[in-house]
């Protein structure tokens, strides 16, 4: 996967290394001008610093366009050219005809004030100049042939400079629910992406103005971390969209997924809306495209029919937004309240792009065609993997569940609260392909005893006989993985199974899926100290020795890998490799408050969605928190989801071994 970086990681340090300049002396101006003429120029983009790279496939444009963020300048007057007056010299007024020798009386009123820089041709918000004032007599001199010839002007596109005018989409009518005037109705779709809503003005997200929970960290270290996460996300985005040709970018490879080009422009649109408009207070670059990339306006199945930006324009738009965001990051205080506390808004956008990178990787898995992604295989299982116990005991007791002290944690992870969990046993590693093949061989897909009523109906209606992308060649099970057909490795965790399939396997094995609280206690609780860790291994950020994260390997690692990432109870691979289905519905924590907008989590609460925990190999470390809560419909199989099973340590009244809390 060839990374395409939207800017060097030294972009922020470059500005800080510049010495303060109080203004050059008059004698230094010729030397500075000569130095500027000798300065190296960016290839294809003259006059720009080299740390803002041009996206692949996008041609260079004139100043003020999406490929050149220089503000257009006013032309200075040249005293040596006919028709131009010297700067600062007042033009002579012409006498009126018919009254020779009559002196002109001065006009009454105060003296004319000095012109403000805004009145000298620069737009008050920068970027686009005002038209130059009309000079007296210029049209008359042109008729006589004494004025300079007209210059050919190339008009720069407005507000970011996309190469063609964007069609204004037809507005989508919204119904207002009875009893709730003034708020737009949010339509529920089979799989709506986690996207911001729109208020009645359609221009800004609906914000909760309460202070952002959780402490923040200010200073250069936080800016460097934010810049690193933003640039890492953009490298992955560019790699996923740059490895295929334009037909694959604009095509819809499954009704469950968006075209890749929609995800690309949606990433830039969200970044512009939250950071440039809300944090920076900037005017919209292209408000006419907002409805196209609002996930609540259009379900995924409809998006290929929308007038989307072509790939080159989508890249130019996201590149323009990212350059302005990096400039905003340099000057924004990150120790305030609300969206700026601890850099929350920037961290939320970094997580949003990383989540769409996982979504685009799923699209690549659903795509049919030759393989375009290459990845090194994970390391073999360590030597002690075969000797690991089948399950670990989690004693009964209280623990603190939820996020506390995580400035970038999302609203559904809060608030931290005390939970009592009875004793239970949990699988040491996720269920493997080999174990799942035994379930298939034993007729697990043909016996309704192991399925819930809804699950059995779905199995029959969808014709499920094995995990998604599996096929049988005689006695050998094969799988298709990113365009390559290969034998199913028996020691890897099973992936691409629905919640119904995971629940049926657990019932067949005489066990159940763990609850969300059980999973988090096994991952975070430290029985030696009684405290709750940030990650299973401790409080240190994830590294390649701890977990399979960040799309380094496009497959799960063998079961029992990453002993350095084991929890205090001995369970392994709780983070990374595969998302793990739990037996819990997606419900709010006690004391939940929607922030910064209710449509991220609140509209999805209920029994329709099941919770997944732990992340997968496709998840970036910035998202791979032990408190992060994913959710989806129980029928979903295209996601990188697996599971592990649990059982009660002691029989509980009114609960069977296959039940789920």
From TrEMBL:
Residues 230-360 form the DinB-like domain. It is an enzyme of class 1 (oxidoreductase). Residues 50-65 have a biased composition (Low complexity). Its EC number is 1.14.99.50. It catalyses: gamma-L-glutamyl-L-cysteine + hercynine + O2 = gamma-L-glutamyl-hercynylcysteine S-oxide + H2O. Fe cation binds at residues 266, 352, 356. Gamma-L-glutamyl-L-cysteine binds at residues 300-303, 632, 636. Residues 33-44, 82-107, 125-156, 165-196 have a biased composition (Basic residues). Pfam families: DinB_2 (PF12867), FGE-sulfatase (PF03781). Keywords: Iron, Metal-binding, Monooxygenase, Oxidoreductase. Residues 1-221 are annotated as: Disordered. Belongs to the EgtB family. HAMAP family: EgtB. PANTHER family: HERCYNINE OXYGENASE, SULFATASE MODIFYING FACTOR 1, 2. Catalyzes the oxidative sulfurization of hercynine (N-alpha,N-alpha,N-alpha-trimethyl-L-histidine) into hercynyl-gamma-L-glutamyl-L-cysteine sulfoxide, a step in the biosynthesis pathway of ergothioneine. This is Hercynine oxygenase. It comes from Peterkaempfera bronchialis. The lineage of its organism: Bacteria, Bacillati, Actinomycetota, Actinomycetes, Kitasatosporales. The gene is egtB.
